[in-house]
Design brief:
Blueprint: H1 3-34, H2 36-39, H3 43-53, H4 57-60, H5 62-74, H6 76-85, H7 87-106, H8 113-143, E1 147-149, E2 155-157, H9 167-191, H10 194-224, E3 226-232, E4 246-251, H11 256-260, H12 266-284, H13 287-309, E5 312-314, E6 324-325, H14 333-360, H15 367-371
Antiparallel strand pairs: 1-2, 3-4, 5-6
Length: 377
């Protein structure tokens, strides 16, 4: 394989790693926010839950920035097409996430029950909505996005905002939310005690099973879904030019890679094994083990989608032959090479300081401890 084609594959894998990191770390925070009023039945319990992720939630957002930055630099055509065509969805995601820092900072500033309840609901919505949008976005990639290019490579989006929230996308969104609730529950179990820990164990077990049910339903749906197959013209070492290939749309085509390479079935199997074992671990009280198994479940889920779609990254339902693939939507070889060098340096640094922060801030968080801490949320 030529260097340019190899770099494209490497950056496709790196993007998968960044999406998995986003799903695990940001999804954990979002899951806790979405279930805040379930975990905590009193004001003290809710403050305790918020302070469990208080030292980490803003640092975890680095995965969101890394993911967006990687798409911008490594796959600029995908960035331009997605962020322009899906502009309203991006704004909805942004507005919902803006509420999170406001909720953390302002919720406990006033003793009024109405004030605090309002911010609690804001944190719930700002946790639930982004995870549904994240899953729905992946679902729409499998369905195909209604866009096409003109001769100047200007992209035109021909769909509507409402059409993005179709039944299959909603199913994927609920799957994403279920895994986020599982991951958040494992975190609350790690740092909670008493009733809060018991509620987290129950919710984690239920959400884990629900995630597997939705994952199975989505897999059966995808097996009958029209998929995309390149039939001619896609050069792995070619330039960023998506107008010179031919793509066919065939029912069940998203399973072709699994048929050609049966070893890929281990990727969805990872989701089943990890989440089932994680649900059992939650019931046994092994919250740290359950957390890592939940992370493996996210990796299996995102890996399954990537394995099914490769080499497609953003299929076009308007003009399938103008779909964006790993081979024809990337930056130049020099750009990918320089980015890879910096990634090798900085990603380990991010993993190191994130691990250090979790280690330093380990331990149980209780309502009594929060009430006596002037610096607590």
């Amino acid at each position: 394989m030529e260097l340019y084609a190899l770099l494209k594959v490497i950056w496709w894998l790196i993007l998968g790693v960044l999406l998995a990191g986003l799903a695990v770390m940001v999804g954990m925070d979002m899951g806790i926010g979405a279930a805040l009023r379930y975990f905590g039945r009193t004001d003290g319990e809710r403050r305790a839950v918020l302070n469990m992720i208080g030292p980490h939630w803003d640092g975890n957002q680095v995965w969101f920035i890394l993911g967006g930055g990687a798409v911008f630099a490594a796959w600029p055509m995908i960035y331009a097409t997605a962020f322009s065509g899906l502009y309203v969805v991006m704004l909805l995601l942004l507005w919902s996430m803006i509420v999170r820092p406001l909720g953390f900072e302002y919720r406990s500033k006033l003793p009024s029950p109405v004030w605090r309840s309002t911010w609690d609901w804001g944190l719930c919505v700002s946790g639930l909505l982004p995870m549904v949008i994240f899953g729905a976005a992946i679902g729409n990639m499998l369905l195909g996005v209604p866009f096409h290019f003109n001769w100047r490579l200007e992209s035109w989006y021909t769909g509507s905002f409402i059409s993005l929230f179709n039944p299959f996308a909603i199913l994927c969104g609920l799957m994403s939310l279920s895994l986020a609730l599982y991951q958040g529950s494992a975190m609350v179990m790690n740092r909670g005690e008493g009733a809060v820990r018991t509620r987290a164990s129950a919710l984690g077990a239920v959400s884990g099973i629900m995630a597997l049910v939705l994952f199975t339903a989505g897999g059966l749906w995808v097996a009958r879904l029209p998929g995309y197959v390149v039939t001619a013209g896609d050069d792995p070492s070619g330039p960023a030019m998506p107008l010179h290939k031919t793509v066919a749309v065939t029912a069940g085509a998203w399973l072709h890679n699994f048929t050609a390479h049966p070893v890929l079935w281990l990727v969805p199997a990872l989701t089943y094994v990890s989440v089932l074992a994680g649900t059992w671990a939650l019931r046994r009280g092994w919250s740290h083990v359950a957390w890592w198994l939940g992370a493996a479940g996210w990796i299996g889920t995102i890996g399954t989608v990537g394995a099914a779609m490769f080499p497609f990254m953003m299929p076009s339902s308007s003009n399938p032959s103008q779909s964006l693939t790993v081979w024809d939507a990337s930056s130049s070889q020099t750009t990918l090479l320089w980015m890879l060098g910096w990634t090798v340096v900085f990603v380990p640094i991010i993993l190191t300081y994130t691990s250090w922060a979790f280690w330093v801030m380990r331990g149980k968080v209780t309502p009594e401890r929060v009430e006596g801490d002037d610096h607590a949320y």
